Amino acid sequence: MNKKITPFLFLPFLVLSACASKQDLVVVTDDLRKLKTESAGSYSDVQQAHDEILRLQGSIEEAAHKNTLAFGRLGMEDSLLVHKVDDLESRLQKIEQYLGIDKKEQSSSAAPKSKETPESAKPSGVTDAAALLKEGQERLGKNSFAPARESFAALLKTYPASALADQAQFYLADSFFSEKWYEKAILEYQVVIAKYIKSSKRPVALFKQAISFEKIGDAANAKARFKTLVNMYPKAPEAALARKKIQ
């Protein structure tokens, strides 16, 4: 074969190779373009998720800050109220000392008198916490205030860690409230408020303590307690009544 013709035999293969390389380049270019587009979309999604996380973290921190402030106000109000309660306790003790009243006779001599049947005045022989609470409530319903307090006090002394302890303390305070011995009611409701902070009786204890302050002519502490109730338990039934009192 003529050596001059030989190079021309490879020319078609070179042209085909060049075309194939060009097509490959186009495909690679398209793939890169798609990859960039997908990467941009993925980055955008990641950025949006990151922004949403930051927003949620901000909301959580804001809520935590508000809760801290709310409980801080409650702690401050309780601190101020403790001084008031201590003052009431001191005044009661001085009155008792002046009158020569023994603490064991407080419920019968210092408090307003209530009619009691001989049966209701009998000391409790019940030892179960639930039974003691029921017994105290029944006595309270009959206006047998001193015997009712005996049942509640027995529950608190014998079963201090009972799930019913907060109720016993509340009804003990209620016995003084029903008896119109408002100074003692304030002291006992304060135990519910300060000690049993997760109790379902806490909102009504706040409300009745505020009413007790009203009854003894202490409008400032009454209003402060109504406000605390509205701030801490805005959805409680007592909160609606407290709002009317504040207005």
Q: Approximately how much beta-strand content do the residues carry?
A: under 5%
Give the % helix: over 70%
Largest sheet: none
- Computed CA radius of gyration, to the nearest angstrom: 39 Å
Number of beta-strand segments: 0
Q: What best-fitting shape do the alpha-carbon axes yield?
A: elongated
What are the low-pLDDT stretches, counting only 5+ consecutive residues below 50? 8-20, 101-124
Mean pLDDT across all amino acids: 74
* Individual helix count: 10
Structural class: mainly alpha
Give the helices and strands as they follow along the chain. Answer: HHHHHHHHHH
CATH H-level homologous superfamily name: Tetratricopeptide repeat domain
The CATH C-level name is Mainly Alpha
Level-2 CATH architecture: Alpha Horseshoe
The N- and C-terminal alpha carbons lie at a distance of: 117 Å
| CATH third-tier fold name | Serine Threonine Protein Phosphatase 5, Tetratricopeptide repeat
Structural domain count:
1
Describe this structure in words.
The structure is a single chain. With 247 residues, the chain is mostly helical. The chain has a single domain (65-246), classed as Serine Threonine Protein Phosphatase 5, Tetratricopeptide repeat (Alpha Horseshoe). It has helices at residues 6-9, 11-99, 106-110, 129-141, 145-158, 165-178, 182-195, 202-215, 219-232, 237-246. The N and C termini lie far apart (117 Å). α2 packs antiparallel against α9 (219-232), α5 runs antiparallel to α6 and α8 runs antiparallel to α9.
